Known about the structure:
Strand content: 5-15%
Amino acid sequence: MDxxxxxxxxxxxxxxxxxxxxxxxxxxVPAFDTLKLMRGWAGLYAVSMLDDxxxxxxxxxxxxxxxxxxxxxxxxxxxxxxxxxLSELILGLPPKLDLSIxxxxxxxxxxAIREDAWAIK
Length: 121
């Protein structure tokens, strides 16, 4: 969300949850509106400050050190493909999916992924 602060804040804001998130959940899945929330949890949210996209693959100068982070909230959605991709890299197999656009060394190069640069127009 646009008003999220940068840094470490582990407080769960139940008011914000009920006012902003719960209505969206209930609209998407109406059954949520019949549930009673018992407790909440707050934790770290891995955000790529470079371009809001993940960093996936072997770190360029540390052999066998692999990254899969910076998903900016869509890690669960992408987890199956990322898991397969990393397992193929680690095993030395040719990846079925080419996720090399998310290579970690783009951090050093400052090579942000610009979605409008490759989108079908």
